[in-house]
Amino acid sequence: MAWKRKQKRKEAKQVEFAKLEHKVAALWTRVSSGEQEQNNCSLESQEKICREYAERNGITIKKHYGDTHESAKTMGKLFNQMISEVTRDKEINIILVSSYGRFSRTGSEASVLKALLKSKGIYVVSATQPVDPDSATGEFMQDILLLFSKFDNTIRKDKCVGGVRDCLLRGEWAFRAPFGYDHYKTDKTHHLKVNEKGEILRKAFYWKAYEGLSNPEICDRLKALGITMNRKRLSEIFLNPVYCGYIKNTLLDEGVLIKGNFEPLVDEETFKIINGKSRAGYDQKEETDKFPLKRHVRCADCGGYLTGYTVKAKGKDYYKCNKIGCKHNQSVVKMHNKYIGLLESYGIPKEFHPILKKVLTKLFDQSNKTRVETTNLLNKQKSEVENKIKTAKYRLGIGEISKDVYEVTISTLEDKLSEIKVQLGSLSEDLSNQMKYIDKVIVMCCKLGDLWKNSDFRLRQNLQSLVFPDGVLYDKKMDGYRTENENEVFDIFRRFSDAYKNNKGAAVDLLSPKVEITGLEPATFRLRT
């Protein structure tokens, strides 16, 4: 009987959103950093958009959480506190946000949390991305929006990493300056300059190479000259090729060195004497496309990454696990064919193309609509601030306010106007080519295997990292791959494909081109498996 009462209480909570008699919300606003707040006046805009939405839709805002700098890439302390308090509040049945990206950018974790909140009778609602949270299509749209928020973070990270790698390839040092150097920029170019400590450190290389001093003795000499350094740190410096003018970094391929465009602390010959190796202790290696799965596939038995090697007598290439006692070998041809098969399992059947295209089109349309609404709101704010600036000038002119009051007022208003203009600039991107982009997305998702097979080394590795960010396992017992973590977007595509295989008739009916996206609510089809 107890479990029946519990089930009844649970069912009582799960009232359809449209049928809620009293809509009571907790408002959540968030920015990731002070810089984002300054550039986008984001907190104020979020709150205003949410309160206007609540007023239009008869929603009472009971509590306001957030107004803080907290990243949405993780579920932080303040976010968890908000969730805890909302779930204990018997009145609140809505968490209202300006967009799903403001709620969370954790992808699948956010989807799971949203489902858990819904089971407790609490809906996550976006003021700028309205969907029906009770329909299968609506849930799918919410999940896609949450996943796209994380995908957007990943794209930004990739762009940042790509930009840093481009700097390295140009011979520019784009990180914190090594000891003995100062880092600065002119326009978009990075520079390193030897500072006073670097001039002293330069002596340490010559003491080591030509006087044969031990590291402790060199540390004592450096200390006498004002530089305190332990032996371990000194050893790391002696091994670092940056001091003879070369850049080595994990963003570059293994063993690859780039000639830097900065002043070396010592010449290569001196560095060579200290390390006893050629080319600053490292050898330049040409990039090869023989083993794209290297450092991507791990052995399922020991967890070690597979490496590649060539048997010249046979003219064949192999992957192998180097751990003692494991030593598993497999031909490159077989490993690559199986990997292509793995990627093809994420392909979307053609019957799914219409619904996927509709979903993506609707997402772009919503993005454009939100962009227009936000732009209109900001233009209105801009006009209001400009009018206030004119009024302040007029009042100063007729003597109603003093010059001191005017200067304080005008400074505040001009800062506000500058912030609004910055945000308007960030919204100026044009999405007019959205259909071309959508078609490319669908083509790519449907031919992952062929795309990997026909790509060069770099593109293969990028595709591998996109689909399987943590790599894959090769299980020699099952003679195939196992995945532990996959990109959430491709995970949805795979589950779509699985649903199609398990219930083809229902899937074909679902994907009929005659059915509008707003009407796709069959009770037998669910996105989660």
Describe this structure in words.
With about 525 residues, this protein is an alpha/beta fold. Among the domains are: about 1-160, Resolvase, N-terminal catalytic domain (Rossmann fold), CATH 3.40.50; about 180-275, Alpha-Beta Complex (Hect, E3 ligase catalytic domain fold). It has helices at about 1-15, 35-40, 40-55, 75-90, 100-105, 110-120, 135-170, 195-210, 215-225, 230-240, 270-275, 330-345, 355-395, 405-425, 435-445, 450-455, 455-465, 490-500, 505-510; strands spanning about 25-30, 60-70, 95, 125, 180-185, 190-195, 245, 260, 295-300, 305-310, 315-320, 330, 470-475, 480. Strands 2-1-3-4 form a four-stranded parallel β-sheet, with helices on both faces. A three-stranded mixed β-sheet has the order 9-13-14, covered by helices on one side. Strands 10-11-12 form a three-stranded antiparallel β-sheet. A hairpin with a 4-residue loop joins strand 10 and strand 11. The chain is flat. The relative contact order is 0.08.
Features:
single chain; 529 residues; alpha/beta; Rossmann fold; Hect, E3 ligase catalytic domain fold; 4-stranded parallel sheet; 3-stranded mixed sheet; disordered C terminus
